[in-house]
Design a protein that fits this description.
Blueprint (H helix, E strand, L loop, with lengths): L1 E5 L4 H6 L1 H10 L4 E7 L4 H4 L4 E7 L1 H6 L4 H14 L6 E4 L4 H8 L5 E4 L15 E3 L7 H13 L27 E5 L11 H13 L3 E4 L4 H12 L5 E2 L5 H9 L3 E5 L2 H8 L4 E5 L4 H4 L7 E5 L7 H11 L1
Parallel strand pairs: 1-2, 1-4, 2-3, 4-5, 5-6, 7-8, 7-10, 8-9, 10-11, 11-12
Length: about 325
């Protein structure tokens, strides 16, 4: 059996789809699983041993230069590569017109969400078979249910398994002692946690022997990390890292505390004790989901207080 998974972005969404690959491998041990993903997130499915081939797509970059001849050359080359194989199932768990159009380039029966429950109802027009998976469930659960009904297996006895491990991070700047990772950066200002709260949290972690490491992606995120680290005892503002290196950093942490960002889901997928902080989104549908060692705090308009976060983090230790 050959299966193509289509889940292109964002980082959190891609991570939420990892259990689908684990489920398929458990039910169909000989299945060949390929995955179409946005090029900037291609490192994530490559961490999963069940994924045979990752097919990066550059939709975000192409959209910014749609009238460029080079863009159309790349699109043409990608379409030829996407249609080169024949699949038993092409499974789009994203439910967007963009992802449905990408799925339509592959040869094979296409499966996806019904119009009533897809994020973009028009996407359902591009599928051969559609399924009404309820929307009032966590994203991980919906992905798994769609795959199960499309491929004809039951989830009853299948454990939640993201299936990934990360190579150890070999970096001279990495603390030799136990450390906590603080994920302070997010794409939206309303998802941030106050800087004073981070300083309070860091002091509590220092008191139990943990140094704090603060990654940052963009220049502004790194500047924030540097500013916060300067107010903490022995903290490190991490240099720029790719996703594989970040996964290694997270995998070695005693605990990870972060705002609503894809990296906090990566920490949970790597089975690290994780505290996710919410202030502008609903964790019921998109919070961290990976067992008792992962805890969501806060909600829309109700960010968690520092004392609650400190207590939860110390309990996970």
């Amino acid at each position: 059996m050959r299966i193509l998974l289509v889940k292109t972005s964002s980082l959190g969404d891609v991570i939420h789809n990892l259990p689908v690959a684990s489920d398929i491998r458990r039910v169909f041990p000989q299945a060949e699983i390929d995955w179409v993903v946005e090029e900037s997130f291609a490192e994530i499915p490559r961490l999963h041993p069940a994924v045979r081939r990752v097919a990066p797509v550059a939709a975000r970059r192409w959209r910014k230069a749609l009238f460029s001849l080079e863009t159309w050359r790349e699109i043409g080359a990608w379409r030829r590569a996407a249609s080169a194989d024949l699949y038993d199932a092409v499974l789009d768990t994203q439910g967007l017109v963009k992802s449905a159009l990408i799925a339509a380039q592959a040869h094979g029966k296409r499966f996806g969400y019904a119009a009533a429950v897809a994020r973009e109802p028009l996407a359902a027009r591009f599928y051969d078979h559609c399924f009404a998976i309820p929307r009032n469930q966590h994203a991980v659960v919906r992905n798994r249910q769609l795959a199960a009904v499309a491929l004809g297996y039951a989830l009853d006895d299948l454990p939640l398994d993201y299936g990934i491990t990360a190579p150890s991070l070999d970096a001279q700047w990495l603390p030799a002692e136990n450390y906590a990772v603080l994920l302070t950066a997010t794409s939206r200002a309303d998802k941030e946690w106050p800087e004073a709260h981070w300083l309070t949290l860091a002091a509590a972690l220092n008191a139990v022997g943990l140094r704090c490491v603060l990654p940052g992606g963009s220049a502004s995120e790194r500047a924030r990390a540097v500013r916060l680290a300067q107010g903490m005892a022995s903290a490190i503002a991490a240099p720029t890292m790719n996703l594989t290196e970040l996964a290694g950093l997270l995998a070695g942490a005693r605990v990870v505390i972060g705002v609503d960002t894809g990296l906090v889901h990566l920490a949970a997928a790597l089975q690290r004790p994780t505290v996710a902080l919410y202030s502008a989104s609903d964790p019921v549908l998109t919070g961290v989901l990976a067992g008792a060692n992962c805890v969501n705090l806060g909600g829309i308009g109700t960010p968690p207080a520092p004392a609650e976060v400190v207590t939860t983090a110390l309990q996970l230790l």
